[in-house]
Amino acid sequence: xxxxxxxxxxxxxxxxxxxxxxxxxxxxxxxxxxxxxxxxxxxxxxxxxxxxxxxxxxxxxxxxxxxxxxxxxxxxxxxxxxxxxxxxxxxxxxxxxxxxxxxxxxxxxxxxxxxxxxxxxxxxxxxxxxxxxxxxxxxxxxxxxxxxxxxxxxxxxxxxxxxxxxxxxxxxxxxxxxxxxxxxxxxxxxxxxxxxxxxxxxxxxxxxxxxxxxxxxxxxxxxxxxxxxxxxxxxxxxxxxxxxxxxxxxxxxxxxxxxxxxxxxxxxxxxxxxxxxxxxxxxxxxxxxxxxxxxxxxxxxxxxxxxxxxxxxxxxxxxxxxxxxxxxxxxxxxxx
Length: 336
Prior knowledge:
Strand content: under 5%
Helix content: over 70%
Mean pLDDT: 84
CATH class: Mainly Alpha
Largest sheet: none
Structural class: mainly alpha
Order of helices and strands: HHHHHHHHHHHHHHH
Shape: globular
Number of domains: 1
CATH architecture: Orthogonal Bundle
Number of helices: 15
CATH topology: ABC transporter involved in vitamin B12 uptake, BtuC
């Protein structure tokens, strides 16, 4: 095999190829919507201090929204990949295993009991809720001996998620706060502003960077715990650190855009078919593919029935549910 052929089959080439696709999707997302703008308007809004109606729409509404889509897509995809490697469960996803439901319930409680809470406090509440939701799911699954069962843990996740969503909806109805959390219920980037991004994005960046530092250990852990112990790894510490990363990524995502299911399930499977099973490659590729996919879904949501919006969560679910059934049919194996 020649060096040239090795390059074209390498992770570096595939990642470089993914970058222009991501950039192209970003510009498409910036151009199309209820108010279509030109490429020139987008370029001026991003590179100059020019003013105008379309430029104001881009800078104040569309740009923060698409930045939110980028970071949320990356966060959910990476957190899903980590969960699948950590639990060796091909059906793992923050939305399917109680994390986003827990964060959503915590969000509802915070809005009801602490209506004056700032955005940072709301985000911390989502972190705590995500941790509680995941703890419930893993706790239920661990009651039965024999280790984690991929399908049993999904059933536990569905039950816990339904329970936590019921709590959230009940609180919203009783305290009449349903309208205040309707943005999160819709699962979209509507109303995202720069102040929210300034608080949320640093946490997502920290989570993504930590995941890359732990990617080698995750690869070994995803294969066999005995091998990891034999190589001198402290698997308890690694699991705790990875669990913290998942909570940061999933909690921050829910605090910003609400409940999003299936991204963390779909993207890692797609990425494994492209780059293999090494998490040093899976995590960075999942980040860029997840960001690109979220930009695509948000663009469809804004343009499908313009000037009205189709909830992004509905679009992702329509794509994700058949994907979930395919993975179940394949016995949890990645796409190939």
